[in-house]
User: Which sequence fits this backbone?
């Protein structure tokens, strides 16, 4: 069913003394061509009715007076089934109010299709605004900082104090007392000066810088361990900490080294030696927080030795490792000497060779070898000896050796040079030539070690 909206303009009934309304009504009827004809000679006053039917406006006319309602009703029912007449005398007032608020049609009503978008927009605005509101006071505090009053502790301030740069702790350099065996006197000198004299005496200056640095750390570790333990073993007097012989570490006073090398045209080697000591300054090798026994030797036979196979005591960081560089570089890797059989028996405190051994020709026989391929046990003239013991008594370069007997002469060939425990110096130089650092060299020859600060270790000892 269609709904019709009818807007009626009803002229006011003129009162006595008021003119013009009737004429206005007559003029409106004359202007409209579709208005009804006049009845007789008298003009008819018509009511102009605007009716909206199906969305289209239509105009009808009705007689005023008592028949106005009936005619209007009849006229309206001719278009729709059930007319709804809407009289709005306040329409002009509403229009003026609408213009005042800036909207002409349907003010205050939002089309249904815009409602979800408006809700989403409102939520988005809230999501952006809330973090800004929460952060704004903190940002203002960061920009505007108020210095703490004088005399007030920073620990009571609400703001944490700025971190203070850490100042490295320095410790006094220890001194070393060295007994000079040739002169029979003891000298005292700083630790780094002592290390310089040891490196100059123990390792060729032509070696690579990283090898010299590794040697400096090993020499420093050796003396720091003795100082920390108050070890004066092997020293003829308690006034010294160490000797300048192979019993401990060979040492040459640095002043003497400088003058001798300068005279021999080795000024560059002297500078390199000083650089090695300077770049490794105060560094020592440690194991479980203590300075290690930093043993070293000249040349390996291709491997180093376990400490227990040489000295009888297990040392966890002195284990056998491979050292293939010695065979390629060391000039004294292999050496052959000739000795009389009678001299060998004498040095080994043996009277004579048993008859059975003499007849079989096996008066010397290897019983076992070490992990480093050196002789662990050997039988000579029926007696059993350790490889290191034979090396020491016969004055051999290594405990790995072979022999050949021709009559009373015995040719003995040795491989490597030294006891074989710890760092091989020629092996260290070979690693340095391949680009390894001093740290890498030391970690290869000393298993599971760490590094510490010599002056700190000795300072803590003095405090206790």
Assistant:
């Amino acid at each position: 069913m269609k709904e019709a909206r009818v807007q009626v303009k009803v002229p006011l009934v003129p009162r006595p003394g008021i003119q013009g309304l009737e004429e206005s009504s007559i003029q409106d009827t004359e202007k409209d061509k579709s208005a009804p004809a006049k009845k007789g000679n008298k003009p008819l006053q018509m009511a102009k009715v605007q009716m909206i039917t199906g969305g289209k406006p239509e105009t009808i006319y009705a007689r005023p007076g008592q028949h106005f309602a009936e005619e209007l009703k009849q006229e309206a029912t001719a278009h729709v089934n059930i007319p709804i007449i809407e009289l709005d005398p306040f329409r002009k007032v509403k229009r003026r109010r609408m213009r005042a608020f800036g909207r002409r049609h349907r003010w205050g009503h939002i089309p249904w299709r815009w409602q979800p978008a408006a809700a989403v927009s409102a939520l988005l605005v809230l999501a952006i605004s809330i973090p800004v509101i929460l952060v704004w006071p903190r940002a203002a505090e960061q920009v505007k900082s108020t210095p703490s009053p004088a005399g007030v502790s920073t620990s009571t301030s609400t703001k944490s104090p700025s971190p203070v740069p850490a100042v490295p702790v320095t410790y006094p350099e220890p001194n070393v007392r060295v007994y000079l065996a040739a002169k029979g006197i003891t000298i005292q000198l700083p630790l780094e000066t002592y290390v310089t004299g040891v490196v100059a005496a123990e390792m060729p200056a032509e070696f690579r810088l990283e090898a010299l640095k590794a040697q400096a750390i090993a020499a420093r570790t050796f003396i720091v361990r003795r100082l920390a333990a108050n070890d004066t073993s092997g020293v003829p007097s308690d006034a010294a900490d160490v000797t300048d012989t192979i019993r401990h570490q060979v040492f040459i006073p640095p002043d003497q080294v400088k003058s001798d090398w300068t005279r021999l045209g080795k000024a560059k080697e002297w500078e390199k030696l000083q650089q090695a000591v300077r770049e490794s300054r105060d560094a020592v090798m440690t194991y479980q927080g203590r300075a290690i026994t930093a043993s070293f030797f000249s040349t390996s036979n291709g491997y180093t030795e376990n400490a227990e196979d040489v000295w009888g005591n297990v040392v966890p960081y002195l284990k056998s490792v491979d050292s293939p560089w010695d065979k390629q570089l060391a000039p004294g890797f292999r050496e052959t000497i000739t000795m009389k059989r009678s001299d060998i028996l004498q040095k080994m405190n043996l009277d004579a060779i048993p008859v059975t051994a003499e007849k079989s020709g096996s008066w010397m026989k290897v019983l076992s070898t070490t992990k480093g391929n050196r002789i662990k046990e050997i039988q000579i003239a029926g007696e059993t000896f350790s490889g290191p013991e034979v090396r020491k008594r016969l004055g051999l370069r290594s405990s790995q050796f072979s022999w050949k007997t021709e009559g009373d002469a015995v040719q003995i060939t040795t491989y490597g040079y030294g006891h074989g425990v710890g760092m091989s110096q020629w092996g260290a130089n070979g690693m340095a030539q391949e680009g390894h650092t001093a740290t890498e060299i030391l970690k290869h020859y000393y298993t599971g070690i760490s590094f510490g600060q010599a002056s700190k270790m000795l300072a803590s000892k003095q405090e206790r």
Notes: Residues 165 and 403 are 66 Å apart (CA to CA). The longest helix spans residues 115-143. Confidence is low (pLDDT under 50) at residues 1-44, 79-86, 138-157. The chain is about 35% helix and 20% strand.
